[in-house]
Amino acid sequence: INIKNLSKVFRTEEVQTAALNAIALQINEGDFISVMGPSGCGKSTLLNIIGLLDSGTEGSYQLLEQEIIGMKENDKARLRKQHIGFIFQNFNLIDELSVYDNIELPLIYNNVASAERKKRVETIAERLSLGHRLKHYPQQLSGGQQQRVAVARALITNPKIILADEPTGNLDSKNGNEVMELLTDLHANGATILMVTHSDYDASFSQKTIYMKDGAILNEKQNARNVDVL
Ligand code: ADP
Ligand code: ADP
């Protein structure tokens, strides 16, 4: 991920909001980076642009060596489906679909054959201790279980990049810790992770924390957990 001079202005009838202001950011394969800063400073906007859910107003953005600015929506959607997994604070599960169907959805979007889909859903459900929950519906699960379903759905396509927007925001500390340990595992297995958080504790799991204010990056800090002590 290579971002230069990225700005984003939201225009509504009465107001213009400069949500991002000349952001420069480089994220390399295998990085685990957290983003912190006060409410309204542009964290989610940045994550959404990186995840191809929104576009910048100005600047350049290269993802997997492709220029995103000016790319057709279809091509962006294909890149997003193939390479990016999202985890949200409110889980964003579909209440009308079972756990199985929620997890399977990205595979359907990616035209994966049904026998292969079944195999992959069952494998990831076991890995996330959801094997006995596949026929349940989201509302029948605890918050921690719902977030595990959301993580399973984000991972089912083996995305190169995982974008997490306050993934523990609605969880108690035990379930929050489980999600952080899961992200740490994924990182150890080569995933690139960008996580927005309000929690210093969660941020300490990442290699580097970026602090934002008023749409800009103020500074960054390396996190001690990753200091090589050999
Ligand atoms: P954060 O995630 O750091 O809380 P956001 O990225 O959500 O901040 O928002 C950054 C700024 O952009 C805020 O001032 C917010 O009100 C504004 N904003 C975000 N989304 C929209 C939108 N769709 N329309 C208008 N303004 C928006
Ligand atoms: P939490 O500690 O997150 O509030 P809950 O009390 O919601 O957890 O759930 C405790 C356990 O009971 C969980 O394993 C959850 O899956 C199960 N459970 C809760 N509601 C239902 C339900 N309506 N049907 C089946 N299982 C449920």
TrEMBL record:
An MF annotation (GO) of this entry: ATP binding
Q: Which residues form the ABC transporter domain?
A: 1-230
Ordered alphabetically, the record's keywords are: ATP-binding, Nucleotide-binding, Translocase, Transport
PROSITE patterns listed in its UniProt record? ABC_TRANSPORTER_1, ABC_TRANSPORTER_2
- InterPro entries linked to this entry: AAA+_ATPase, ABC_transporter-like_ATP-bd, ABC_transporter-like_CS, MacB-like_ATP-bd, P-loop_NTPase
Q: Which residues cross the membrane?
A: none
Q: Which family does it belong to?
A: Belongs to the ABC transporter superfamily.
Name of this protein: ABC transporter ATP-binding protein
Native source organism of the sequence: Flavobacterium cerinum
Q: Give the lineage.
A: Bacteria, Pseudomonadati, Bacteroidota, Flavobacteriia, Flavobacteriales
